[in-house]
Amino acid sequence: MSARLRAAAARFVLPTVLVVAFAVQAVSALLSSVHVLVASALVCLAADAALHRWQRGLVTAFGKLHATVTVRQVVRDLLLVLGLLRIDVEPESKYLWIVCGLMVYYALHFACQALAIVVRRTRTLPVVTRNIDTSALHLDAAPPELLMHRTGQRLLTSGLPVAAGLLATAETSHLRYAAAGLALSAAFEAIGAAMLFARLLPRRKPVTADQAIEWFEKWLAEYQPTVGMYFSGGTNSAYQANMWLEPLARLEGRPIIVLRERFMVKRIASTDIPIVCLPKVADLMRLEQSTLTMLIHPSNSGKTSQVLRIPTIKHAFVNHGESDKLSSCNPYAKAYDEVWVAGPAARERYALANVGIDDRDVVEIGRPQLDVIQPYAGAPTGAYTTVLYAPTWEGWDGNPGNTSVIQAGENIVRALLADPAVRLLYKPHPLTGSVEPKAGAANLRIMEMIRAANVKRAADQSLARPAAAAAAELTRRTAELDALTTSTFRDSADDMERMLLQGAPEAGRAAAVTDATAAWEAAFWASFPVWEHQIVTDARPTVYACFNAADVLISDVSSVISDYLASEKPYAVANTSGLPEQEFRETFPTVRAGAVLTPDASGIPALLESVRNPEKDPYADDRRDLKLHLLGPSDPPSAVRFNDASRALSSRAEAHREGMAVRAAVAVIPKQRETENTPNGETVGG
């Protein structure tokens, strides 16, 4: 049996046990089998608790079938009562109070659930912030998660005394056990309801939506933001915004980040820039009256059109990377005031795509993120050649040339692992497998190949290993960086509690994060043997840190190639498009300064030879020329050009505001002339 089948079988063990236990409990209740009734009820409770602990997805699936945890708990309790009636240890009338007690218990449970909904609504503010002092709002911590969100777990927990009491009564025929269980369960729910009700009292109730918006407008007036970034996207798209955090922080003026999805606030990486999330369009429109003049946009989304309606703000599309793919020339870009690109290549790309972008609106700014990339320093000096394989994902259009993972990935990795002098860094795109399952499966097989190669190398006792102090240093540096860049929250923390804890950052934190990041990266690479292959899927180390560690890059037609060219190091591109090599190079200009690999990866040995012996590298001059074409000149630096573009666009916005003010001043509706009487007594007016 394959691993996938075993995993699927294991996934259905708990629900199968739950269903069977319910069936056995029903039969044993009808047949008056006390011991079987008790055993099946215990198994049923245990299976339900395990589902909530380890398989939340199946709990949701049961809910879609209307077999919610509440329904399951009610059925369990009723089956226990039915069993008691069938055992007939007492007259049936004696059990009427048990049924009434259960009704009281469930009434308290539903009351607690209703109060949780009300409390949750009062704690949902129209604006969510980060890096902003919210002390004026008098926010407080959220109630326990067991009361607010984990309804099923609360019911299972509070229902334990009831179930235990009924089971004890079934075994002993003493009703006092059922009474005690009911009392304990009802008390549990009553205490929870009281705790939630206290949150609705005037002295504990949070600020209203109007008060929160009033506070936000006051903050805008005091902070007076001038430049910012607007971002809206899905759960896995935060990396698109994160790559622009440092360039935005270095801009002249007072920066701000504007988000639309509440979950995105905690997905934005560490930054000192004030972050505001405005889910509703009506609240977003309040930015029109602010001092904000310019917004950059790393991506397009359905909600982007809403902010483009604000006439007092100018908008620039900066994208989250440039490549030769058609997605880099989206017609949506013509909705922005300007399109900021890295270099002449992107300008030409828009002109050739003919998607309605006026060349006068295209501004070349370089790639300000690439300042951290170290330049090419020649052939590898150590015993190992470090190869970075960073394929992109499969995309939305089903084009087989988008990613090499499916057709060529395993061949590339197999060829690299076959060279004893290669250390492989494998960094797949975070969205790999999100559209095409074959890409996800190939990605997993590649990782298994790399792990197996590491096990084989580790068996060689002659290979050097870092001292234990290196691992301890990485642990220390990780803790230091985490303390600066992450906030620790309780499981029950909601947006309001996070706003309370993530107020204005301490002075100097940004510089401390920069230093701590550099120290962490050095400790990270030093903590592993120089021969050990690495699978890099976490946020750290970044792709730019991997660039600096690599001697050569293998990738697909993507922005990774363009960014890597900042180093002028050798690179290769996998051709899975089906095009002949010459046509492939002509179609995708970023390929022209690198080697082209066929899906069988037969060109890997020649690539490694050219990396180890630069005199055999035929593309060195081409890389310098292509770098200039893709990324623009190094003087002035990209950061300077980015700031100049920002300043120019802000000036356009200010000129537009001044023009609007002048037009508003002169566009006065003429007053109606006062009526007057003519000599003959007639009344006339204007």
In short:
The chain is an alpha/beta fold.
Question: What does this protein structure show overall?
Answer:
- The structure is a single chain.
- This protein is of the alpha/beta class and 686 residues long.
- It folds into four domains: 3-125 and 145-200, no CATH class; 224-364, 3-Layer(aba) Sandwich (Rossmann fold), CATH 3.40.50.2000; 373-465 and 530-636, Rossmann fold (3-Layer(aba) Sandwich), CATH 3.40.50.2000; 467-528.
- The chain is built from 26 helices and 16 strands.
- An eight-stranded mixed beta sheet has the order 1-4-3-2-5-6-7-8. Strands 11-10-9-12-13-14 form a six-stranded parallel beta sheet, with helices on both faces.
- This is Integral membrane protein.
- The chain crosses the membrane at residues 95-119, 177-198.
CATH class of the largest domain: Alpha Beta
Strand content: 5-15%
Q: What is the number of beta strands?
A: 16
Low-confidence stretches: 672-686
Spatial order of the strands in the main sheet? 1-4-3-2-5-6-7-8
Structural class of the secondary elements?
A: alpha/beta
- What is the rounded distance between the termini? 94 Å
The helicity comes to: 40-55%
CATH homologous superfamily caption of the largest domain: Glycogen Phosphorylase B
Largest sheet: 8 strands, mixed
As a whole number of angstroms, the C-alpha radius of gyration is 33 Å
